[in-house]
Amino acid sequence: MAGKNRDSPPWTVPFLSLYFTLFTPRWNTMSASTPSVSLDVFRTLHRIHRQLTDLQEQLDRGPRHVSAGQSSIKHREEELAKLREKTKSMRVAADQKQLQLKGIEEKIKDFRRKLNAAASNREYQILKDQIAADEMAKSVLEDEIIEALEQVDQFQPKISGSEAALAATRDKAAKTQAEVQKQQPLLRADIERLTAELRRYESELPATVRETYQRRARQKGEDALAPVVDECCGGCNQQVPINVQAEIRLGHPTFCKTCGRLLYLPEA
Ligand SMILES: [Zn+2]
Q1: CATH 2.60.120.260 correct for 28-264
Q2: Residue 257 Cα, ligand 1 centroid: separation in angstroms?
C-alpha cells in the first residue's frame, strides 16, 4: 500500500501547508513575530469576560427593578385615588338627594298645614294635587337614595382590594430595593476582583496583540474572543482553515479575519 501511488498522497499535505503558510497573513496570525501563549490564557480570558458581562447585567438590572417597583406603586396609588374620588362623588350625589328629600318633606308638611286652613274646595283640591305630586317625587327620590347608598356600599370592596394591592406592591418594592442595595456592593466588588484577574491574564498576551485585543474588548466585551467550534469561528461561523487552527493550537494569537475576534480552542 505504501509503495503504491508514492507521488500524490505524501505530497498533498506539505503542498497544502505551503499554500496556507503563504496565505496566513490574511488571518492575522502572530506566529512569526510573537511568542506562543498558554491555551488556558485565552479560555480564561473569555470565561472572565463572560462572567463580567453577567455581573454587569445583574448590576444594571438592579436599578431597573427598583424603578419598575416605584412605577407599580405610582400606578396603584393613582388607581386607588380614582376609586376614592368616585366613591366621594357618589356620596356627594346621595347627600344632595337627601337634602332634596328634606326639602320635599318640608313642602308636603307646609301643604298639609295649608290644607287644613283651605278657604275653598278649589284651593283644597289644588293643595291635594300638589301634595300627591310631591309624595310621588318623594317616593322616586327615596328609591334613588337607596340605590345610590347601595352603589357606595358595593364600591367599598373595590377600594379595600385596591388598598391591599397597593400595600402588597409597596411591600414588594421595599424588599426589591433592600435586596438591590445589598447586592450592588457585592456585585461591584466581584466586578473589581474579576477585572483585576482579567488584567493579570491579559498581561500574558504579547504586547503587539494585547493592544488590538483590548481595543476590541473595550468595544465588544466578551465578543472580543470566540472559541473555534466545529472548525468555525464561534462568533461569526466563518470556517477557520486547518493550518490556522494549527497555529491556534500552538497558542499563536489569531484574530478571526471576518469578525476580528481573538480565536481560541475550547477544552476537548
Ligand atoms: Zn469570526
Answers
A1: no
A2: 7
Give the distance (Å) from ligand 1 centre to CA of residue 42.
Answer: 15
Please name every residue paired with 264 in a beta bridge, in sequence order, or none if there are none.
Answer: 227
For the chain, how big is the Rg over CA atoms in Å? 43
Supply the pLDDT for residue 35: 75
Neighbours of 45 (CB within 10 A): 24
Q: How many CA atoms lie within 13 A of 222 on its CB side?
A: 17
Domain boundaries, the chain: 28-264
Q: Long-range contact list for 209-216, CB < 8 A, 24+ apart?
A: 209/30, 209/34, 209/253, 209/262, 212/255, 213/253, 213/255, 213/262, 216/260, 216/261, 216/262
Residue 86 pLDDT > 80, yes or no? yes
pTM of the predicted structure, to 2 decimals: 0.72
pLDDT of residue 136: 97
CA 221 to ligand 1 center in whole angstroms: 15
